[in-house]
Each structure stands twice: as C-alpha cells, then as structure tokens.
C-alpha cells in the first residue's frame, strides 16, 4: 500500500527516474525526462480545481481531462517534436506507475499526441566530399600534437561505410569485427538494444586491419583483445562521446569542409551520407532499414524520397531542359 506522501507526483517522478537510471541513459536524456515530467506536472497543478502547488499534486488528481488540459497548455508554444517527446515520457511514466500498482490504468491514450514530421537527412554536401575527407585524414599534419592517421581514417570509414550512430561507434569492441575474409561483418548493438550485422567490404576491412596493426605497435597486443574497445584515444583509452565528436570535428577542420557539413548534423552527417548514397545507388527502404537499424520503414523511406527530389532538381537544372521551355509555343484556344 502507498500512503498519501508516496502518491505525490514529485515523489513518483523521482522513483521513475531512479528506475530509468538502471537502463544507463545519458545525463542529457535523464535531464530531458525530468524536464518533460516536471513541466507538464506544474501545468497540471495550476489547472487543477482548486489550483495546487506542485508538491501538493497527488497522482489521483491526474485525470485524463486534467492531463489533456495540461498538454494543451504545454503544446501552445512548443514544436510538435517537443510535445511528442513529452508525451512519450509521460506514457512511460504512467506505464511505470501501473506496473508498480500505484494507479489502475494509463490515461495517456486519451491525450492527443502530435504527429511530428520525420527529420530530413543531412548528408555531407558535395559529390566528392567523403573521399576528400578520408584522403585528408590519411595525411599526418605537422600541426597535430600526436598524429595517428590510421585511427582517424578508421573512425571516419566506419561511420561512412557502416552508417553507425555515435553510441554504436563507442560500443564497438575489437571482437565486434568477425567473419571470414570476404564475408566480414560488424556486430552492432543498436538503438533500443536491437542487434544487427553490417557487412564489411574489403576496403573497410583493410582500413580496420591497418588501424589495429598501428595500435599494436603503439600500445602492444594486449590492447587489441576481443573485449577491448575498438576505438581508442591517443593514450589507448576508450574513446568517449566528447572525444569522438572532437576527433570528427578536427577532421572536418583539417579537410577544410566546414561549409559542407549541415548545421546541427556533424558526426551524424556521416551516417546520413552512408544512407543517402545507398538510396542513390538503388537500395530499397527495407535494405536501408536493416543496415541503419531503423525501427520502421518510414525513417528509411525519407532517404529515398530526398534522393528522388534531388534527382528531380538536377534534371530541372539541366540547360537543355530549360532551353526547351522557350521552344514550346502556347496552343491556340
């Protein structure tokens, strides 16, 4: 049984966040959960009859009608993506409360959820940009404190040729690379814990072999055991989120392609480049979905639609097509 204090919303939010912490979310994600839960709870307390301070709001007061009103107020000055994220957080919160037998049911299905547009792909701009980036990374510059081109090329090549997310890159182990010659593959721990296998073609295989060989020369064979992190920093320590982002940013800078990297994409632009090139070369949505680890075909389909739009723009820009417009005479009515 829960007493009155145990059923205060602020207390239950903390219990939910503690339970979620066992899944090892990033600090950014955990902060977003807290922000979404607290923001809507504050509005619900203000809209209650009579209005209540937040720390007096009990979970029993959260009727479908009050939650709908709070979300309507919450959505007034926020983007659909933000409202959708908050809806998912509250849905998870109530599912937790049902499982803990704090409430009898989840009211969130009665609360409207906005349909946010799928984010558009942001690949590197320029036909030869990926190749230029790799070629630049392969050259050790005198300005670098401790150049390690084999490692830099390996990081970029895995992102560009396997389309991995940042978290997936960091989770790779030396033993993630497996299979016989000609049938090599990366075992990837994907979003939501979904595993997938990504083929490794001979070029990428050679890059990774060269990187691991250079790593053995630097730090010894003990650093390339199967359970060792695949990607490490210049001290041989596992690469972390900030270090990986800085590495990729510095590669962009050295290659002089800052103006070809979409704003807000950065490392993710490499994954989007992989997917966009798949679509340009004729891959279907189902193939793209499997290779990128998407949860639904809809996300993969956006790459095909964007590619089709780019092809249409290219055709429209053709000078011969433009010249034809002036040759067509209007028909007499």
CATH architectural category of the largest domain: Orthogonal Bundle
Secondary-structure content class: mainly alpha
CATH topology of the largest domain: hpI Integrase, Chain A
Q: What's the pLDDT, averaged over the residues?
A: 86
Outline type: elongated
CATH classification class of the largest domain: Mainly Alpha
Please tally the β strands and state the result.
3
The sequence of SSEs as H and E is HHHHHHHEEEHHHHHH
Query: Helical region count?
Result: 13
Number of domains: 2
Low-confidence segments, ≥5 residues, pLDDT <50?
none
Structure commentary:
Helices cover 54% and strands 4% of the residues. Strand 2 (185-189) and strand 3 form a beta hairpin. The chain is mainly alpha-helical. It is elongated. The longest helix has 21 residues, at 27-47. A three-stranded antiparallel β-sheet has the order 1-2-3. The mean pLDDT is 86. The chain contains 13 helices and three strands.
